[in-house]
Amino acid sequence: MSFQLDRLANQLDWNLLRTFMVIVQERSITSAAQRLNVTQPSVSAALRRLEERLNIQLVERGSGRVFTITPSGETVYREALEMYGGVVRLNELNDSDDQILTGNIVIHRSSHLDISFVNELLARFRALHPGITFSLTSTQCSEVTRALQQRVASLGFCTQLETAPQLKRHRVPGQEFGFFCGPSHALYRVEKPDGKVLALSDMIGFEGESLSGPLAQVVRYRARHEIGDTMIATTSSIVDLIDMVRHMPAIGSIAVKHAQKHAPDLWQIPLESEHPVIDMYALVDTDRHLTQAERELIRFLESEKVLSSVE
Q1: Which of 88, 89, 143, 182 is such that its CA lies 20 to 30 A from the CA of 133?
Q2: How many domains does the chain have?
Q3: Strands 103-110, 250-255: parallel, antiparallel or unpaired by DSSP?
Q4: Residue 37 pLDDT more than 80?
């Protein structure tokens, strides 16, 4: 038996596990193929070879392209995640004899959020541990949770959460969003905006700005108060959104604090009703093995009450 297990460890192709990991996350052979930049038959063949190599059924195939993950498949998926995260974290291992805390901490955040308060805390944390470095990625909410599920991120900040039981979420102060325009818009510097102009204005928004997305509250607010007619551009970058609002005769919804700091030339359109407030969460994977640097950062954020209110 031990010989068989040893042979499996030596001969199993990691790419088969990685392909299966992506299949589970995408819940679609087609989407997995697109993400891996390979053909759909290649993904199907990899899944079949992995099942044959492990001699277990990983998915239950239904009619058409519908399938569900078997209990054995869920177990293999969790093990694959652990291996993937372990490989990614190999360069973060510290020498136990080293008295200086070192390592790189990876943080993913939703691009539409203002996390300047987190950056201030990171600066204070690094003052305590100058050997620490950070990698910060701004992306969509779905990519934040995906990075944590794949165990390539230490910490995440986002609005909308996908189903991920191993991710512990901590509520942090919500973000107030306002509606802004640039000098080329008819409502620029107008204290009492005309409702018709507001309703017929073009909009620029973030990717995922829909009723089912992380900015659903903003979308509903726009509909209730008749703000904007056509979405003419979307982006995943707050920098690009601000720049487009600055140069186009269109309105964009931006976190108020973010706009005040980074776009003081934009005009926040005065509205009588209270602005929408977007929920915000800090996410931590409770199941993964944390490096010493990550553990120290978690303790520091807990002491600062950023990671305290668990839902």
Answers
A1: 143
A2: 3
A3: unpaired
A4: yes
